[in-house]
Amino acid sequence: MKKLVAECIGTFWLVLGGCGSAVLAAHFGGDGNPLGIGFLGVALAFGLTVVTGAYAFGHISGGHFNPAVSVGLWAGGRFSSKELLPYIIAQVFGGLVAGFVLMTIAQGSAGFVSDPSAAGNFASNGFGDLSPGGYSLGAAMLTEIVLTAMFLIVIMGATHKLAPAGFAPIAIGLALTLIHLISIPVTNTSVNPARSTAVAVFAGSGALSQLWLFWVAPIVGGAIGGFIYGWLGKDEVSEPGAANAL
User: Fold this and answer.
1) Where's the motif NPA 2 (predicted)?
2) How many angstroms separate the CA atoms of 131 and 117, rounded?
3) Which of 41, 50, 204, 214 would staple 196 via disulfide (CB 3.0–4.6 Å)?
Protein backbone atom coordinates (compact mmCIF):
# COMPACT_ATOMS: atom_id res chain seq x y z
CA MET A 1 0.00 0.00 0.00
CA LYS A 2 2.82 2.43 0.80
CA LYS A 3 4.30 1.83 -2.65
CA LEU A 4 0.99 2.66 -4.31
CA VAL A 5 0.52 5.81 -2.25
CA ALA A 6 4.06 6.88 -3.16
CA GLU A 7 3.35 6.32 -6.86
CA CYS A 8 0.11 8.25 -6.56
CA ILE A 9 1.73 11.24 -4.87
CA GLY A 10 4.76 11.15 -7.18
CA THR A 11 2.57 11.18 -10.30
CA PHE A 12 0.46 13.95 -8.77
CA TRP A 13 3.65 15.97 -8.32
CA LEU A 14 4.82 15.30 -11.88
CA VAL A 15 1.54 16.45 -13.42
CA LEU A 16 1.09 19.41 -11.10
CA GLY A 17 4.66 20.59 -11.60
CA GLY A 18 5.10 19.85 -15.29
CA CYS A 19 1.64 20.56 -16.67
CA GLY A 20 1.15 23.33 -14.12
CA SER A 21 4.18 25.15 -15.46
CA ALA A 22 2.76 24.90 -18.99
CA VAL A 23 -0.73 26.09 -18.04
CA LEU A 24 0.10 28.75 -15.46
CA ALA A 25 3.60 30.01 -16.16
CA ALA A 26 4.68 29.36 -19.76
CA HIS A 27 2.97 32.44 -21.21
CA PHE A 28 2.43 34.46 -18.06
CA GLY A 29 1.77 38.06 -19.03
CA GLY A 30 1.64 37.26 -22.73
CA ASP A 31 4.27 36.44 -25.34
CA GLY A 32 7.57 38.19 -24.79
CA ASN A 33 6.98 38.77 -21.08
CA PRO A 34 10.25 38.09 -19.22
CA LEU A 35 8.27 36.54 -16.35
CA GLY A 36 6.90 33.75 -18.56
CA ILE A 37 9.05 30.61 -18.43
CA GLY A 38 8.37 29.56 -22.03
CA PHE A 39 9.33 26.36 -23.83
CA LEU A 40 12.61 25.81 -22.00
CA GLY A 41 11.04 26.45 -18.61
CA VAL A 42 8.33 23.85 -19.15
CA ALA A 43 10.88 21.25 -20.25
CA LEU A 44 12.97 21.96 -17.17
CA ALA A 45 9.92 21.83 -14.90
CA PHE A 46 9.12 18.28 -16.02
CA GLY A 47 12.70 17.26 -15.38
CA LEU A 48 12.67 18.83 -11.93
CA THR A 49 9.52 16.97 -10.92
CA VAL A 50 11.19 13.67 -11.74
CA VAL A 51 14.42 14.57 -9.92
CA THR A 52 12.67 15.71 -6.77
CA GLY A 53 10.02 13.01 -6.88
CA ALA A 54 12.56 10.24 -7.38
CA TYR A 55 14.65 11.41 -4.43
CA ALA A 56 11.51 11.66 -2.29
CA PHE A 57 9.81 8.40 -3.25
CA GLY A 58 12.33 6.27 -5.15
CA HIS A 59 13.35 4.32 -2.06
CA ILE A 60 9.69 3.51 -1.35
CA SER A 61 8.17 2.57 -4.70
CA GLY A 62 10.97 2.82 -7.25
CA GLY A 63 9.67 6.20 -8.39
CA HIS A 64 8.07 5.19 -11.69
CA PHE A 65 5.27 7.83 -11.86
CA ASN A 66 4.50 6.61 -15.37
CA PRO A 67 2.70 3.49 -16.69
CA ALA A 68 5.16 3.29 -19.60
CA VAL A 69 8.07 3.16 -17.16
CA SER A 70 6.39 0.40 -15.14
CA VAL A 71 5.73 -1.60 -18.32
CA GLY A 72 9.29 -1.01 -19.54
CA LEU A 73 10.83 -2.16 -16.27
CA TRP A 74 8.60 -5.22 -16.39
CA ALA A 75 9.67 -5.95 -19.98
CA GLY A 76 13.29 -5.60 -18.90
CA GLY A 77 12.85 -8.07 -16.05
CA ARG A 78 13.10 -5.50 -13.29
CA PHE A 79 9.52 -5.27 -12.12
CA SER A 80 6.98 -7.81 -10.93
CA SER A 81 3.99 -8.51 -13.15
CA LYS A 82 1.68 -8.76 -10.12
CA GLU A 83 2.44 -5.15 -9.21
CA LEU A 84 2.04 -3.76 -12.72
CA LEU A 85 -1.72 -3.07 -12.79
CA PRO A 86 -1.91 -1.64 -9.24
CA TYR A 87 0.97 0.71 -10.05
CA ILE A 88 -0.75 1.92 -13.23
CA ILE A 89 -4.03 2.52 -11.42
CA ALA A 90 -2.26 4.50 -8.68
CA GLN A 91 -0.37 6.57 -11.26
CA VAL A 92 -3.48 7.43 -13.26
CA PHE A 93 -5.41 8.32 -10.11
CA GLY A 94 -2.64 10.59 -8.85
CA GLY A 95 -2.46 12.30 -12.23
CA LEU A 96 -6.21 12.87 -12.37
CA VAL A 97 -6.20 14.45 -8.93
CA ALA A 98 -3.43 16.78 -10.08
CA GLY A 99 -5.39 17.62 -13.23
CA PHE A 100 -8.42 18.53 -11.12
CA VAL A 101 -6.33 20.69 -8.77
CA LEU A 102 -4.65 22.42 -11.70
CA MET A 103 -7.95 23.14 -13.46
CA THR A 104 -9.39 24.55 -10.24
CA ILE A 105 -6.39 26.85 -9.86
CA ALA A 106 -6.46 27.93 -13.51
CA GLN A 107 -10.16 28.79 -13.34
CA GLY A 108 -9.33 31.22 -10.55
CA SER A 109 -8.03 33.63 -13.19
CA ALA A 110 -10.54 35.71 -15.14
CA GLY A 111 -8.30 35.46 -18.19
CA PHE A 112 -8.21 31.65 -18.31
CA VAL A 113 -9.69 30.19 -21.50
CA SER A 114 -10.04 26.51 -22.36
CA ASP A 115 -10.55 25.81 -26.07
CA PRO A 116 -10.95 22.06 -26.82
CA SER A 117 -10.08 22.67 -30.48
CA ALA A 118 -6.76 24.40 -29.73
CA ALA A 119 -3.43 22.59 -29.90
CA GLY A 120 -1.96 22.02 -26.46
CA ASN A 121 -5.14 23.14 -24.69
CA PHE A 122 -4.64 22.73 -20.93
CA ALA A 123 -1.20 21.16 -21.60
CA SER A 124 -2.82 18.30 -23.52
CA ASN A 125 -1.08 16.14 -26.09
CA GLY A 126 -2.11 15.82 -29.71
CA PHE A 127 -1.30 15.23 -33.36
CA GLY A 128 -2.50 16.79 -36.61
CA ASP A 129 -4.54 19.89 -35.81
CA LEU A 130 -3.88 19.37 -32.09
CA SER A 131 -0.11 19.16 -32.48
CA PRO A 132 1.65 22.41 -31.52
CA GLY A 133 3.63 22.21 -34.77
CA GLY A 134 0.95 20.53 -36.89
CA TYR A 135 2.77 17.18 -37.00
CA SER A 136 1.03 14.12 -38.43
CA LEU A 137 -0.20 11.01 -36.63
CA GLY A 138 2.76 9.02 -37.96
CA ALA A 139 5.30 11.60 -36.81
CA ALA A 140 3.67 11.81 -33.40
CA MET A 141 3.61 8.04 -32.96
CA LEU A 142 7.23 7.62 -34.01
CA THR A 143 8.33 10.44 -31.70
CA GLU A 144 6.53 9.02 -28.68
CA ILE A 145 7.74 5.44 -29.27
CA VAL A 146 11.39 6.35 -29.84
CA LEU A 147 11.66 8.87 -27.01
CA THR A 148 9.90 6.61 -24.50
CA ALA A 149 12.20 3.75 -25.48
CA MET A 150 15.25 5.94 -24.94
CA PHE A 151 13.82 7.14 -21.63
CA LEU A 152 13.63 3.54 -20.42
CA ILE A 153 17.16 2.83 -21.58
CA VAL A 154 18.42 5.83 -19.59
CA ILE A 155 16.38 4.80 -16.54
CA MET A 156 17.62 1.23 -16.57
CA GLY A 157 21.20 2.26 -17.22
CA ALA A 158 21.20 4.95 -14.53
CA THR A 159 19.77 2.55 -11.94
CA HIS A 160 22.13 -0.30 -12.74
CA LYS A 161 24.23 -1.70 -9.91
CA LEU A 162 27.42 -0.54 -11.62
CA ALA A 163 26.19 3.02 -12.25
CA PRO A 164 27.38 5.80 -9.91
CA ALA A 165 25.31 5.59 -6.74
CA GLY A 166 22.88 8.37 -5.91
CA PHE A 167 22.90 10.12 -9.29
CA ALA A 168 20.12 8.21 -11.06
CA PRO A 169 17.37 10.81 -10.43
CA ILE A 170 19.54 13.54 -11.93
CA ALA A 171 20.25 11.55 -15.10
CA ILE A 172 16.60 10.58 -15.44
CA GLY A 173 15.37 14.13 -14.85
CA LEU A 174 17.79 15.52 -17.42
CA ALA A 175 16.67 12.86 -19.90
CA LEU A 176 13.04 13.91 -19.45
CA THR A 177 14.03 17.55 -19.90
CA LEU A 178 15.80 16.68 -23.16
CA ILE A 179 12.81 14.65 -24.33
CA HIS A 180 10.59 17.69 -23.83
CA LEU A 181 13.02 19.96 -25.68
CA ILE A 182 12.81 17.60 -28.64
CA SER A 183 9.12 16.82 -28.72
CA ILE A 184 7.05 19.69 -27.34
CA PRO A 185 6.56 21.02 -30.91
CA VAL A 186 5.49 17.57 -32.11
CA THR A 187 3.04 16.23 -29.51
CA ASN A 188 3.41 18.62 -26.56
CA THR A 189 5.33 15.66 -25.11
CA SER A 190 3.68 12.74 -23.40
CA VAL A 191 5.95 9.66 -22.96
CA ASN A 192 3.60 9.10 -20.01
CA PRO A 193 -0.01 7.87 -20.36
CA ALA A 194 -0.92 9.01 -16.84
CA ARG A 195 0.26 12.55 -17.59
CA SER A 196 -1.72 12.61 -20.84
CA THR A 197 -4.88 11.24 -19.24
CA ALA A 198 -4.65 13.67 -16.33
CA VAL A 199 -5.09 16.73 -18.54
CA ALA A 200 -7.07 15.25 -21.46
CA VAL A 201 -10.03 14.61 -19.16
CA PHE A 202 -10.20 18.35 -18.45
CA ALA A 203 -9.04 19.63 -21.87
CA GLY A 204 -12.15 18.50 -23.72
CA SER A 205 -13.24 16.33 -26.62
CA GLY A 206 -10.27 17.06 -28.88
CA ALA A 207 -7.65 15.76 -26.49
CA LEU A 208 -9.83 12.84 -25.40
CA SER A 209 -10.34 11.71 -29.00
CA GLN A 210 -6.58 11.42 -29.48
CA LEU A 211 -5.71 10.07 -26.04
CA TRP A 212 -5.43 6.50 -27.37
CA LEU A 213 -2.16 7.37 -29.10
CA PHE A 214 -0.62 8.58 -25.87
CA TRP A 215 -1.33 5.24 -24.25
CA VAL A 216 -0.34 3.02 -27.15
CA ALA A 217 2.88 4.74 -28.27
CA PRO A 218 4.51 5.25 -24.83
CA ILE A 219 3.58 1.71 -23.72
CA VAL A 220 5.06 0.24 -26.90
CA GLY A 221 8.15 2.45 -26.61
CA GLY A 222 8.58 1.61 -22.94
CA ALA A 223 8.38 -2.11 -23.64
CA ILE A 224 10.90 -1.80 -26.49
CA GLY A 225 13.34 0.20 -24.37
CA GLY A 226 12.99 -2.15 -21.43
CA PHE A 227 13.53 -5.21 -23.60
CA ILE A 228 16.58 -3.69 -25.29
CA TYR A 229 18.29 -2.76 -22.03
CA GLY A 230 17.24 -6.07 -20.47
CA TRP A 231 19.12 -7.79 -23.30
CA LEU A 232 22.11 -5.46 -23.12
CA GLY A 233 22.53 -5.95 -19.39
CA LYS A 234 21.50 -9.58 -19.06
CA ASP A 235 25.05 -10.70 -18.27
CA GLU A 236 25.30 -8.21 -15.41
CA VAL A 237 23.80 -9.30 -12.08
CA SER A 238 22.18 -6.52 -10.08
CA GLU A 239 21.43 -6.54 -6.39
CA PRO A 240 17.81 -7.54 -5.63
CA GLY A 241 15.60 -4.49 -5.92
CA ALA A 242 18.44 -2.09 -6.70
CA ALA A 243 17.59 -1.77 -10.37
CA ASN A 244 14.03 -0.75 -9.53
CA ALA A 245 15.03 2.10 -7.26
CA LEU A 246 15.11 5.43 -9.08
Assistant:
1) 192-194
2) 11
3) 214
